[in-house]
Amino acid sequence: MLDRSAAVAAAGGRPKRRRYMGVTWITDTRSLPGFQWRMPETSFHAMQESIINGAPETASALAQEALGAGIRPLDAINEGFVPGMHAVGEQFAQGKMFLPDMMASAEAMRAAMAVLEPELKKIGAERPIAGTVVLGTTKGDIHEIGKILVGTLLTAHGFRVIDLGVDVPGERFATKARDLKADIVGVSALLTTTMKNQRSVVEALERAGLRPTVKIMIGGAPVTRRWAEEIGADGYAKDAMSAVNLAQELMAQKAAPIAAT
Ligand code: HCB
User: Which helix (H) or strand (E) holds 185?
Assistant: First the structure.
C-alpha cells in the first residue's frame, strides 16, 4: 500500500496541496503532472489508496467506475473504501498521519459515498416502510461517516430514517423519538470518551417514558455487545449491514406482543 508521500514520489511531481492550521498536505495525486487515469488491476486496493491519499476526485472516479463495472455499491464500500478509513485510523494512532490527513480522508470517503449512496437507496425506494429510525452521533462526537452509511442502508431496506447529525445530546434523541413516533433510536459513538453519552441517550429515553415503545441500537468503532448490555441498549451492530439485520430483528420483537394477542 502506497502512503501519501510514496504516491507523490512514484508519480514524480508536485500534487495539489492544501493548508490547514499551518500544515500542508496532498489532496489528490491525480493532479500530478503526467498522471494517466486507467482502471487499476485491483480496484478495491485503488479505492483504499484513494482514501489513504485523501483524494476525493479519485475516490469519486473509482466509485463511478465500480458501478460501471458492475461492482455492487456495498462491496465497493466494504471491500474498498472502508478498509482505507481503517488504515488511516491505524496510521493516525501510530503518529504517521495527523488530523488534516484524517479530514482529507473523510472528504474522500464522502466523495465516494456521494456516488454510491443514490444507488444503494434505489433498492429500498419501492418498499413499504419497515419502521422509523432516529439516528445520530452522540454528544461531543463529530464522526459521521459510519452513521451516514448505517442510515443509507436502513433506507435501502425500507426504513424511514431521520438523521439528527452529530454532537446530539440525549434529550434531543428523546424529543425527536417521541415527536416522530420512532420505533428505533440508533446511536453512534467513535471515541472512547463519548461512548458514555450513549448511556445518556438510554437514560433520556427512560426519563421520557419511551423505553417500552422505542428500541435502542448502538454502534461505532469502540462499541461492543457487552457495552450495549451494560448500558441497557437493545442491541449492538458492528457494521451497517448488521445494523439493518438488527433493526429488522428489533422490529420483529416489537411486533411479537401484538401478534400474540
Ligand atoms: Co477521528 N478518531 N478523531 N476523525 N477518526 C478515530 C475514531 C480514532 C479511532 C483514530 C485512532 O486513534 N486510531 C480515534 C479515536 C480513539 C478513541 O477514542 N478510541 C480518533 C480521534 C482520537 C479523533 C480526534 C479526537 C482527533 C483529534 O482531534 N486529536 C477527533 C475527535 C473529534 C470529535 O469527534 N470530537 C477526531 C476527528 C476526526 C475527523 C473529523 C478528522 C474525521 C471524522 C470526519 C467525519 O466523520 N466527517 C475522523 C475520522 C475519519 C476517523 C477515522 C479515521 C475513521 C472513522 C470512520 O469514518 N470509519 C477513525 C479510525 C477508525 O474508526 N478506525 C478515527 C469508517 C466508518 C464506515 O466506520 O466505525 O464509523 P464506523 O461505522 C461503522 C460501524 O461502527 C457501525 O456501522 C458503520 C458502518 O459500517 N456503526 C453503527 C456506526 N454507528 C452505528 C450506529 C448504530 O446504531 C449501529 C451501527
Answer: strand 184-188
pLDDT score of 214 more than 80: yes
**Residues comprising the chain, all counted:** 261
Give φ, ψ of 148 to 5 degrees: -65, -40
pLDDT digits (tens, 9 = 90+) for 74-121: 889 989 999 999 999 999 999 999 999 999 999 999 999 999 989 888
Higher pLDDT, 191 or 28: 191
- Of 190, 198, 201, the residue with max ligand 1 atoms within 8 A of its CB, to mutate for a pocket test, comes to 190
Backbone angle region of 19, left / alpha / beta, with phi > 0 → left and psi within -120 to 50 → alpha: beta
Ligand 1: centre distance to CA 106 (Å): 9
Give the model's confidence band at 35: pLDDT under 50 very low, under 70 low, under 90 confident, else very high. Answer: very low
Q: Report CA(101)–ligand 1 centroid distance (Å).
A: 13
Residues with CB under 6 A from ligand 1: 82, 85-86, 88-89, 92-93, 99, 102-103, 105-106, 140-147, 149-150, 186-188, 190-193, 217-222, 237, 239-240, 243
DSSP, res 247: H
**H-type alpha helices, 12-98:** 43-52, 56-68, 73-75, 82-93
Ligand 1 center from residue 14 Cα (angstroms): 30
Closest by Cα among 83, 59, 198 to 135:
198
Alpha-carbon torsion, ordered 121, 115, 176, 245, to 10 deg: 50
- Provide the whole-model pTM: 0.85
Question: What is the grid cell recorded at 84?
Answer: 482505507
